[in-house]
Design brief:
Blueprint lengths: L1 H15 L16 H4 L3 H8 L5 H12 L1 H15 L1 H10 L15 H5 L13 H7 L9 E2 L5 E2 L15 H12 L5 H11 L4 H17 L3 H4 L4
Antiparallel strand pairs: 1-2
Length: about 220
């Protein structure tokens, strides 16, 4: 149960800090309790009556002991972000291990690379962070305003969390390993996004990054 609650707390911490999908501003992450408490995700977990009372009480207990829990949440975030890992280790006066940082790596290259999950850990922090932040959702549907949306799929505790990154990464490799260009990648994702909420979020975020890459040097690392 603690591990599942931590997954929601990581979601809330990144949400409260407005960390972008590629994690470029991860160094700005602030895990102070007052900051994390601003997240709507955490407010839902603590106050919404649709969440089982046992879950709300357990989450409240974690927040009451945030000084201890925050370190575990920081480690969870460091697992998906090389940049945050370096900061976390330095702040705790630990020796940072030497890590190869492939800054020239990009999503398109790695989709065509290897089916082995170990390959995921050798990608750049931008790519790794991107795949690790896909929310669990039920389906793709059209709202009353005519816009597509993806209702959250809650875990067994009644809380939102990110999808398992291994599942996301391997699913994308299986579906898109044969793409030849950025345009083909976006076209294939757009088709998959029509009915699959996971690809809906991947396409939406990658399309935003693709548009930003035209003028933003950091974003362009994901495509060139």
């Amino acid at each position: 149960m603690y591990r599942e609650l931590r997954k929601t707390l990581m979601y809330a911490a990144l949400d409260a800090n407005k960390i972008d999908p590629a994690g470029r501003n991860i160094q700005d992450l602030n895990l102070d309790k007052d900051v994390v408490m601003k997240s709507g995700i955490l407010k839902f977990a603590l106050e919404d009556k649709s969440v089982p009372e046992s879950t709300r009480l357990a989450m409240q207990e974690l927040m009451d002991n945030w000084d201890v829990v925050a370190d575990d949440v920081a480690r969870d975030i460091s697992d998906i972000s090389t940049d945050y890992m370096k900061r976390f280790e330095l702040e705790n006066e630990e020796d940072a291990e030497s890590m190869e940082d492939a800054e020239s790596a990009n999503i398109e290259q790695h989709i065509k690379a290897s089916y082995e999950f170990s390959q995921f850990h050798r990608t750049s922090s931008l790519v790794r962070f991107f795949f690790a932040r896909i929310p669990m959702c039920e389906k793709v549907e059209v709202g009353e305003d005519g816009k597509k949306k993806t209702p959250s799929k809650l875990n067994r505790l009644g809380l939102p969390q990110y999808m398992d990154v291994k599942y996301v990464f391997n699913s994308v490799l299986n579906k898109l390993h044969d793409i030849e260009s950025k345009s083909e990648l976006l076209e294939r994702l757009q088709t998959l996004a029509e009915t699959d909420p996971m690809y809906f979020h991947i396409y939406k975020r990658l399309k935003n990054l693709a548009d930003g890459a035209k003028t933003n040097v950091d974003d362009s690392q994901l495509f060139t």
